[in-house]
TrEMBL record, chain A:
The keyword Transferase does not apply. InterPro entries: Cyt_c/ubiquinol_Oxase_su3, Cyt_c_oxidase-like_su3, Cyt_c_oxidase_su3-like_sf, Cyt_c_oxidase_su3_a-hlx, Ubiquinol_oxase_su3_dom. The keyword Transmembrane helix applies. It is a multi-pass membrane protein. This is Cytochrome (Ubi)quinol oxidase subunit III.
From TrEMBL, chain B:
Residues 9-522 form the Cytochrome oxidase subunit I profile domain. It is found in: Membrane. The lineage of its organism: Bacteria, Bacillati, Bacillota, Bacilli, Bacillales. This is Cytochrome ubiquinol oxidase subunit I. Keywords: Electron transport, Heme, Iron, Membrane, Metal-binding, Respiratory chain, Transmembrane, Transmembrane helix, Transport. Gene3D superfamilies: 1.10.287.70, Cytochrome c oxidase-like, subunit I domain (1.20.210.10). InterPro entries: Cyt_c_oxase-like_su1_dom, Cyt_c_oxase-like_su1_sf, Cyt_C_Oxase_1, Cyt_c_Oxase_su1_BS. The keyword Protease does not apply. Belongs to the heme-copper respiratory oxidase family. It comes from Solibacillus merdavium. The chain crosses the membrane at residues 27-48, 68-89, 110-131, 151-179, 191-218, 238-262, 274-296, 308-332, 344-364, 384-404, 416-438, 458-483, 555-576, 588-610.
TrEMBL record, chain C:
The keyword Translocase does not apply. Its main location: membrane. It is a multi-pass membrane protein. This is Cytochrome C oxidase subunit IV family protein. It comes from Solibacillus merdavium.
Amino acid sequence: MDINQKFTPQTWPKHPEQATLEGKNKLVGLWIFLASDTVLFASVFATYIALKDSGPAGMEFAARDLYELPLAFIMTMLLLTSSLTSVYAMYHMKNYNYSGVRTWMGITVLLGLGFLCLEIYEFYHYVHIGFGYTQSAFSSAFFTLVGMHGLHVVIGLVWITGLIIRNSSRGLNLYNAPKFFAASLYWHFIDVVWVFIFTVVYLMGVLG
Amino acid sequence: MSSVTQKKGFGAHVWDYLTTVDHKKIAIMYLAAGTLFFAIAGFEALLMRIQLMFPESTFISAGLFNELLTMHGTTMLFLAATPIIFAFMNAIVPLQIGARDVAFPFLNSLGFWLFFIGAVFLHLSFFLGGAPDAGWTSYASLSLYSPGHGIDFYILGLQISGAGTLISGINFIVTIITMRAPGMTFMRMPLFTWTTLVSSSLILFAFPPLTGGLFLMLVDRMFGANFFDHTMGGNTIIWEHLFWIFGHPEVYILVLPAFGLFSEIIPVFARKRLFGYSSMVFATILIGFLGFMVWAHHMFTVGLGATANAIFAVATMAIAVPTGMKVFNWILTIWGGSIKVTVPMLYALGFIPSFVAGGVTGVMQATAPLDYQLHDSYFIVAHFHYVIVGGIVTALFGSAHFYWPIMFNRALNPKLGVLTFWIFFIGFHLTFFVQHFLGLMGMPRRVFTYMGGQGWDLFNFISSIGAIMMGIGVIILVIDVLLSIKSEPVNRRDYWGDGRSLEWAIETPLPFYNFKQTPLVRGFDPYWIEKEEGNKEGMVYAEPLGEIHMPNNSILPFIMSIGTMIAAFGALYSPWGDQVQAGTATGAPAVVSLALIIGGLGLTIACMIIRSFKDDLGFHVTVAEIESIEADLANYRATGKKGGNK
Amino acid sequence: MGHETHVEVRTQAQYEYDKAHSRAHMRKQVVNFAIMIFLTFIAFAAVLADFSPTFIIPIILLLAGIQVVLQLYAFMHLEDRSTHMVGVIEFFIWSAAFIAFTFFVAFTTIIWWGNY
């Protein structure tokens, strides 16, 4: 594969992300990794569900009074929208429009950053009112589960930012197309996990 | 360019192995590292057996005994059996499917180094204040309160090496899915490739719960979280679930490739097509699936309730069905064959009855009421050693003899091989057969000594004699390996004369790109088909001779693994650790601890960033170079001299 | 490996057809997005509306399930049958989902000592 091969929209393959064997490997590998990550999240999720009502005798904070739905709703909207913007980026990649890819991926990063800031604010707020990591089994489980998702967001942000910086001046080719596609798949996966977090942690937490 | 023609110094060789991404060299490193840890864990077992040889023995102390039994189990499963199986997977699977390398050569190397560094980290515990002592299962109710840093070494060491294993598993899955040669459809894949695929899928799904569980225990012990601490609302049973969700599939992760190896050995020496190929594939997948649905049979006595126990008992018994299918298929492959009893075949013949014995006692324990009697007794020890030694270790020893010619271009001595087999096999049955009865007589497992006069003395003595015999068998095998270094090179394809699958169609020593042209697979047992048709090349090709694209070597995987080790030391000496605050373990100042964690992980992340910012496109081997390498190899095979062609 | 790269020049007509097709597909994606937003809205509204939890919990779990399937098949392109080895990928993803489901069942039923 010649990395410097220049394309026109007409010679650009219909599936640029899987035009090379490396690209195919990368995508299958990422999917397989996501399957594995699903199980990792499932085990922490299951632990959270088992521990969500338990703490030491006289525990102050119960899920019911703790969570604030408006904040969770805004975070959900930010992440869902960022999922759509990364779909737009992939749409432009198929059309060999690099500036489109860069713009939409950039917007994805901004939305992700917004999500992350809100999450940090939320954690800060909880710690501030006395709901710390070591407070109870429930608090440990909550911070571990949501924090693990937050860590995935950070990794996704670093990954996408890195891709944008690395490829800012060289445009699309068959070497970096699978990389962009893989990063966008990973970003969607973060959204998939969040769907369960807002349902199981926040909504079911408020229901009690 | 050619690896055959270069004369290299020792340093260059070390550098070559540190940076290699070649699946054949990584296989050799896995084999060497696995053998090292196998020897260590075997030595630990011998110490325990010597202690138990006589009642009320004072050979080793109770505390040391706990450390030995923990390290023996942990090391044997994670750091000996797994890497040796990975060695055969790495060496053989790409050849069996007609690939030039694995899908992710860089990750392959990273997987090895993470495993190795994690293993070394775990073993450093012996020198840094005591090894883990809560058993290989490390139940939270014990391990949370274990003083010192032993358990911390267990958690962090397994976390690192588990990450390596997971990475290797993903790599094998993708390799088998996407890198098969033209014509190698799923239902033409050799059984070892199939079992590698299923076993890697089990790794894929079983290691995350372990990673999760270990992480919870890590934050519990070192950063004050409360997952398993009942005074803070935690629940120690969660650890048991997470551990066994991992732990039960782990058994199948190890035993399925062993099944695959025997499914390769038996048809070659029975000189018959494998009986019931598609039912073997089906049974493999079914065992993999059921392996996930039975974890709670390790927890019958926890008190999950009658309903849960009944469900898991039935599911456990169901596994006997596909396993039985496999056993019958092996027997029917041998049946009516023209059998050659070579060393690998001897191991296969020894394996079938030994493994069946282990399987049958497994079904006994699946009966929940009986398990209440057998739980935590020597019967359990006898059972799982019959499965692991009778099933997995025999497979590893047998396939070492079987695949040595491909991996090293040397053959192991058959006379010493037969000697090893008999001493090891008899020693194995002596050791573990009597332990069934010890268990039924009421001897609990994991005790460091016992009173005389309970009728246990003789059987314990016999058991220890058997263990010593097993040790002697392994020493003879090691001598055999050392002698093979100086023996005549094999220099041929199809060492055993009856090879069936693609790996036997290539002449040893192998060039680094394996196949100069990608083979075309025309059916199951492709090499057999070509032999039947009198094809002297051993294979037909799917493409003309052309440029070969190969990956570059890299030192980054090694540095990344070192980074995780540095971070692990930071977490280990965290000043917030339960045991540090209780004063039973030493902690570092917060600054030092955090600096090590951030610095170590930072090093790893920096390597990842370098990796993604520096384009790694690999290199191309031109047709002229391929022809020169092939001529060199042919000359070497004919004259025994390297590089005579230049 | 290099030899597996196929680059072919599309005809103008094919190129324009593909482009129009991909634009239509993008419109569908926006509709999918709208559905997801709508489902999220219903889930939050249902919780705020203060119905009985035994009624709402199954519904919001179902909504989450639908959203995840939409994400996987629409946004993550699993519906595109020309994706390399898409059947195998689906098998692995659904196996993971099934295993995750068994964890949920186990950890909500048999984890506790005292409650049953």
